[in-house]
Specification:
Blueprint (H helix, E strand, L loop, with lengths): L7 H9 L3 E5 L2 E8 L3 E7 L6 H10 L2 E7 L3 H9 L3 E2 L8 E6 L4 H6 L3 H9 L5 E3 L6 H12 L8 H11 L3 E6 L4 E8 L2 E9 L1 H6 L1 H15 L4 E3 L14 H8 L4 E4 L4 E4 L6
Parallel strand pairs: 3-4, 10-11
Antiparallel strand pairs: 1-2, 2-3, 4-13, 5-13, 6-11, 6-12, 7-8, 8-9, 9-10
Helix pairs in contact: 1-7
């Protein structure tokens, strides 16, 4: 199963929000151009790494930096052997949780920690709504911004609309009726992703997010997904204290840990012709 960042839909999405994309032999190469100085090439969790193709693209796009986030330690070792160096600041989460959706719903429920089960009982009457229409996304984003203020980045309406448009039936926007908590789930190549989420103080106190995630898991299972990816938990190799709280939250749903090596970077002098 390909990581979502190596799918054709995700490549289309990145193109629409301003990246240039070269898709060669089902591998996505994302290029961000900067006036006068050249470009950056980013390759995220590819199934294979072709240094020759990367070198050719680097020359073509006058790249001054190449960023590769490999899937395996074997690929990471290879990158170090050809001059790449591990970055202190990875771009993608280096550790996540995978939930096995081939289990029955009863089995999934039974492995929930007691705080999840308690929260689901507590919020039994909470109304969760699906944002189905593109023109409803503006209000969705407004609630998101209100909940997090300036503490977190909130994607612009145009990007959220594009995400909804491109992934269509393979995306789920859920929110509480009062807009205090919400989440976006994506599905591609049999993997569902807990893509983005927000909640305000009231929603966190009332434990609303547990019900939203549980609904997202059941939606993914109903759509035939085999894996539910929580898209990041705390990793002591690249410590970020702000991740510890939601890591406890995600672990309470079960699943097993998956580790990635991190981001590997190579700087080069672009050749202008």
């Amino acid at each position: 199963m390909n990581d979502i960042r190596q799918t054709a839909k995700y490549a289309k999405y990145l193109k629409k929000i301003g990246w240039q994309v070269e898709r060669i032999n089902e591998i996505n190469y994302f290029i961000k151009k900067f006036p006068l100085v050249g470009s950056v090439i980013k390759i995220q969790r590819p199934e294979n790494i072709s240094i020759k193709k990367i070198q050719n693209l680097a020359k073509k796009h006058h790249a001054f930096q190449i960023i590769i986030e490999p899937k395996t330690q074997l690929d990471a070792d290879f990158l170090e052997n050809v001059g790449f160096r591990l970055s202190r600041n990875p771009y993608l989460p280096t550790k996540t949780l995978h939930l096995d959706l081939t289990k029955t719903q009863d089995e999934l429920f039974s492995q929930l920690k007691k705080d999840v089960k308690y929260s689901l009982r507590k919020t039994e009457k909470l109304k969760i709504e699906e944002v189905k229409k593109i023109d409803e996304i503006k209000d969705f984003k407004k609630a998101w911004k209100k909940a997090v203020g300036f503490k977190r980045y909130v994607p612009p309406v145009s990007q959220l609309k594009m995400l909804k448009k491109i992934f269509y039936e393979d995306t789920l926007f859920l929110k509480t009726k009062d807009g205090s908590a919400s989440a976006i789930f994506l599905l591609e190549d049999n993997i569902a992703y807990y893509w983005q989420a927000f909640s305000d103080k009231k929603a966190r106190k009332e434990l609303f997010q547990y019900k939203i995630v549980w609904k997202g898991i059941l939606w993914a299972k109903s759509r035939g997904a085999k894996v539910f990816d929580f898209e990041g938990i705390y990793d002591s190799r690249f410590p970020n204290k702000s991740w510890e709280g939601f890591t406890h939250f995600k672990r309470s749903f079960g699943g097993h840990e998956v580790k990635y090596p991190g981001a590997f970077i190579k700087w080069r002098m672009p050749i202008f012709r």
